[in-house]
Amino acid sequence: MPSNWIKQPQQLNQTRYLNGGSGDSQVGGLINSVPSNVPVSQGIQNRPGDRMIIGEEDALALSDTVNVGTLYGGLYQYVTTKSTAVAAFTRGKACFWDTGVANKLFQVTSDESGSQGVALFAGVLINTLTSGYSWWIQQAGRVSARMKAVFTGVPSDGCAVYLGAVGAGEPGVFDVLDGGGNPTFTQVSQMLERYAGVARGIPVAGGIGTQIEIPLCRNFRW
């Protein structure tokens, strides 16, 4: 499908790749202020909450396939990372909406903590970001994901993939539950809460060698 730019992304970074660099130190990019006699509108900048739907061709063109990896068509959103998050914002890991700030700030955390745990899944990090910086995450479509070091269940091509909810041990990783035993009603509720998508190929434990398809229904910020 062709790309659907809900808002045209500006100033991707000096590398020109969507999955390059470590994020914007200033919200919206490098332009933070200009002399009064220079007619530049701040409106051209990316703002937290901006979304874009990218097709396969453009996603590939915006990918740093040599140093980072390949991006695929899907829904992306510009967010700000929590500056005081404990866990690193690592490529392929899940991040979660930070309930400690107003929704309009579109701030995400890498930590699995507090009463919400992993319930408010925000998306997957497409590159490794500096805490406190702003950049794009992927919220739907095909994405490379970091898997749990040891799966709870048995992986298979097309199996369901869930948020690992490991906590401080492996925050933000994904898990496979199929064949892991008979769940209780509480566990079924957790599965519904933690469902992330469907595996493309047989998931590989540990690392970022697994791709998942995230459905267009996991959004909590608009």
What does this structure look like?
This protein is mainly β. The chain has one domain. It is 7% helix and 24% strand. Strands 2-4-3-5-6 form a 5-stranded mixed beta barrel. The chain starts with 50 loop residues before the first strand and ends in an 8-residue tail after the last strand. 39% of the residues are buried. The model has no long low-confidence stretch (mean pLDDT 88).
Q: Would you kindly provide a brief summary of this structure?
A:
With 222 residues, the chain is mostly beta strands.
What is the fold's blueprint, element by element?
Layout: E1 51-54, H1 56-61, E2 74-81, E3 94-97, E4 107-109, E5 121-125, E6 134-145, E7 160-163, E8 174-175, H2 185-194, E9 195-200, E10 210-214
Parallel strand pairs: 2-4
Antiparallel strand pairs: 1-2, 2-6, 3-4, 3-5, 5-6, 6-10, 7-8, 7-9, 9-10
- Overall shape: it is globular
Which residues form runs of ≥5 with pLDDT under 50? none
> Within the largest sheet, what's the order of strands?
2-4-3-5-6
The main β sheet shows up as: 5 strands, mixed, barrel
Give the helix/strand class. mainly beta
Can you count the helices? Answer: 2
Taken in chain order, the helices and strands follow as EHEEEEEEEHEE
Residues in helices, as a percent range: under 10%
Give the termini distance in whole angstroms.
23 Å
Number of strands: 10
Radius of gyration: 18 Å
> How large a portion of the residues is in β-strands, by DSSP E?
15-25%
| Count of distinct structural domains | 1
User: Averaged pLDDT, please?
Assistant: 88
